[in-house]
Each structure stands twice: as C-alpha cells, then as structure tokens.
Amino acid sequence: MEQDEDLAEQVDGALAQAEALVSASLLEIAERLSSAVRPRAVHEALLIFTLVCTGRPTKKAGSAEIVDRVTIEELIRLRDLTDAEHAGGERRAVIGGQERRVRTWSSPNGALLVLVEPGELDAAGTRLVERCWAIADWTIQHQVRGASPSYLAETRSISTARSRAVQELADSHTTALESLLATLRSRRLEDAAARDAAIEIASRALGAAREAVQRDRALTVEPVAGAFTALRQDLQPVARLGGLELDLVPPPADGRALPGEIAHAARWIVRSVALALVDRPDVTRMRVEWGCDGEHLLMNIRDNGDGERHESEGYLAPVAERTHALAGTCEATATSGWGAEIAITIPLDQQGAAPGAAPAARLTVREREVLQLVATGARNQGIATTLGISEHTVKFHVASLLRKLGAKTRAELVALTR
User: Which CATH number characterizes residue 409's domain?
Assistant: First the structure.
C-alpha cells in the first residue's frame, strides 16, 4: 500500500510538472522548465533559443549575471558548432561574455536548450531533461501557431525594433568606414594629415558607439535643433576632406522634437547624399535645409552640379526606401546646368502599437479559452465541463488571468473583453 501511495505521489508530481509546462506562456516557459528539471539537473541558468518566436527568440531563467548578459550571437555560435551533437553532452562555450560549462539539447524544430554551469547528470536526470524539453518545445510551437492578433502585433513590433537597432548600428559603422576610406584615399592631404584625420574620425566613431549602448533612439525624442547640430558634426569630415562647401540652414530652434528613429534616418539620408556627392567632380557645393510645420520634418537638399545623370545616383534608391519606410515622400528633380534637388517630407506621428497588446500576448492558449468562457458569464463548473479540465484547474487559470490582466474581479475580466 505504501509503495502504491509513493507511486501515486510521483505520478501526480510528474503530471503537475507536465501541466505547468503545457500551460506556460512564452514568457514563463523558461522558468517552468528550469523548475521542472532542477531536482535532477542542477544548473545556474537555463536558456532556450528558437527562431520560431521571432519577437523573443531567447527564453531565460536563472542567474541574472548570466541571463542579463547572454547574446543571440553567442547562442547562434553555440547552436552552429559542427562538433556538437546537442544531445546533453558537456562542453565549454562563451555565454554572457565569458567561457562557461554548458550542456545542450536540440529539438526537431531547430530550437536549442542550454543548461549553464550544470551539476552532475545521471541517466535518470538526462531522461527527465529530454522529456521536459520535448514538452516545452511543443508548448512553444503550439503557442506560436495559436497566437492571438495582439501577440502577433507585439511580436512584429519587437522584431521591427530589433531590426531598426541593427540597421542603426550598421549605418553608423558604414559611415565611419566610408569616411575613413575617403580620408585615406584623398589626394588633397599629405600622409601625416590623412593619418591625423583618420584618427579623429575613428575616435569619434568609437565615442558614438559607446553612446549608442546607453540610449535607445526608438523610444526617445531629440530636439530638432540638437538633431541638426549632430548632423553638422557628422558632415564636418566630409566637407573638410572632400572639398565640398556646405550651406546648412537649421530648422527653427523651437520646432517640434523628432522621434528618435526619424532623427537618425534624417541624418543618415543627408550623410548618404553628401558621401555620394564627394565623388562627383562637377559638385563643389551642397545646401541642406531642415524645417518643421508641426506635423512633418521637411528636408531640402540641393547641389550645384551639372544636373545630368551620373552613376553615383544609385544612392537615391536607398534614400527613397528609407523615407518610404517612415511613411514619407521623396522627390528628386534635376535641371541641366543648374544642379539637382531632393525634397523629403516625413510625418512625425507614426502609428503605434495597440494599447493592451502586451498583457494579452502573455496569455496561454488555455487562459484565452478560459477568458472567453468567463466573458460569456460561465461559472467555474461550467468552464471545467466545457474544456474537460478540473474545477481546481479553472480556479488556477482564473487567478492567473486576474494577475496578468490587472483585474480584481471576474466582472473586471468580462469588461476587459468588451
């Protein structure tokens, strides 16, 4: 009898862990998987990397020293190691900026599970990790396939923000390297002068890279006058080394502040045009004017070239693409003998994410089903019968809904669904 009770207790524990994994949201899955395997597989941190969830490809639990520092690049390098079978074997890898002991498991869907600084793992522990990992991987796949519109909207927003951040860094590095090349290839400078100028450009680029770590342009605004001052500084090396005379007309000092991504894009556009014109022997002067009408950033760029088509005009395509990505307009005109002009208008108000998208995105599939039934006025017993689960489980999901959605009563939950 005692053995039967022990067996029943073990089965109940296993089923509870399985239910916890199956009902976990994408934000909770790493924590619950860590709790499920920890009795047999001790670890300092647990990491999941999956490309199925593009908004949050990494799920993390454990030591803040590790989970706060690990990067996607580190996990990609670990996943792509040709000598790693990812079947639970121990190896050393760079995680969170330093080399650590890890055990890894892959899934048929291409996801990767990493236990960082694991303890000893016996055969029973290995089986536990493999079974729990299979359930967690299925849960992630199921969550993504059954994603709500709000979750998809949030994921799209996160992916866009990450792509924008990568694009900003790429633009910054490209500008620095192009400026260095222009300096080193300049025939107007002696070797010593070119070297000094290159050092100055590299130092400025390093300083900008450090500052970029501390700011998030996508979530902040820049005073329009300050954004133009930054542009003036960016153009100094081009003007000095390329022999291009600049006529910079600033916007009104009290003009409306620019969203960070628009300020960055506007500077990138002007820099791109300036770097293209440096290679044009017929262009010696460039005029840049910024203005604001309260709703738009107005940019006008003119040169004193011959007004004919040149191979260097390939820069117009990415300029137009960047402008259109911000819902703006870009018009380029040229008059033979009088030069070319680019007129750009970018709206300052961009459509944001729908309110309440983030909390709704945190709900599991089962929680959304319970919420829909709660909204119809069904009681716990009726919900349990409809979904084929216990009334105790329904109470658990209702409590979770109240916590996640910030509601105090079932009536408030119903109101949130209206």
Answer: 1.10.10.10
Q: How many domains does the chain have?
A: 3
Q: Secondary structure of 272-288 in the HEC alphabet?
A: HHHHHHHCCCCCCEEEE
Q: Which residues share a beta bridge with 341?
A: 302, 333
Listed residues 347, 378, 405: the one ending a domain: 347
Distance CA 2, CA 15 (A): 20
Instruction: Identify the residue whose tokens are 């055969």.
Output: 123
Residue 37 lies in a domain: yes
- 66 and 202 belong to one structural domain: no
Closest CA to 281 of 251, 330, 244, 252: 244
**Cα gap 186→109, rounded to integer Å:** 52
Sheet holding 245-249, edge to edge: 245-249, 285-292, 296-303, 339-347, 329-335
Q: Which residue has the tokens 């100094």?
A: 236
pLDDT digits (tens, 9 = 90+) for 349-407: 754 433 333 455 467 767 788 888 887 778 888 888 888 788 878 887 888 888 778 77
Q: Are residues 278 and 316 in the same domain?
A: yes
Instruction: Give, for 175, the enclosing helix (H) or strand (E).
Output: helix 149-185
Secondary structure of residue 4 in the 3-state scheme: helix
If asked whether residues 28 and 60 sit together in one domain, one would say yes
**Structural domain harbouring 414:** 363-418
Same domain, 136 and 158: no
CATH of the domain at 177: 3.30.565.10
In this structure, what is the dihedral angle of CA atoms 180, 186, 190, 194, given to the nearest 10 degrees?
A: -10
Mean pLDDT computed over every residue of the chain: 79
The number of residues in the chain equals 418
Residues 309, 311, 315, 321: is their CA dihedral positive or negative?
positive
Instruction: Please report whether residue 356 resides in a domain.
Output: no
**What predicted TM-score, i.e. pTM, was given to this entire model?**
0.43
The DSSP element (H or E) to which 333 belongs, if any, is strand 329-335
